[in-house]
Amino acid sequence: MPSLRTGRPARAAIAGAVVLATIGLTGCGSDGVMHRGSTALEYDGKSASASDLQTAAQQITKAIGSGTITASDVAGVLALEPQLTKLGKANGVVVSDDQVKATYPKVDFTPTALNAMRASTLGSELQNSGALTAATAQELLKDAKVTINPRYGTWVPGKGASAAPQPWISPKPSQQAPVPNGRPAE
C-alpha cells in the first residue's frame, strides 16, 4: 500500500504499484484542475498545489533519510488517504498526526506532508494487520475520487494511472505552411 518509507522489499513493491496506480487526471473541461492554475491535486474535497506537493516531498525525503520522494509519490499517497482512513477505522487501525510527529521529531511537516505521512503509515499498518491486501487495494483505487494535473499522469478508470508523457504538453500540429517573417504572404 502507499508507503513513503524505504525497506521491506515485498511491501515496497505493493506500495509502489499502488502509488503509481493512484496518480490520475480528470483535468479536461472548463472546471478541471488545469484551469485553476497552481492546483495539482484534488481529493475528497481537499486540494494541494504543486508547491505543496514539492515541499511535502522534500520534507518527507528529509524525514526518512534515504531515497528521494517525488511530488507524484506524495500525490499518489494523498489520493488514497480518504479510503485508507475509512478502512483503518473499520479495522480498528488509526494513525494520528501526533504519532507521525513523534516518529519524525526533527521535521516540522507542512499539513500536506503530515497528511501524506499519516496516510503512508496507516497503509503500512493496515498491510501488517492483514486488512490491506492486493484485492482491497484494487477496491480503494476503484473508489478513489481524484483529480490530478496532467503533469503527474493520466487516469484510466477502473485501472489506475499511467505515467505522464514527457514532455506532458506537446504542440498541436499545424495544417498550414509556415509563414515567412511571421506575416502572411500577400
From TrEMBL:
Superkingdom in the source lineage: Bacteria
Region (Disordered): 157-186
UniProt protein name: Lipoprotein
Organism field: Flexivirga aerilata
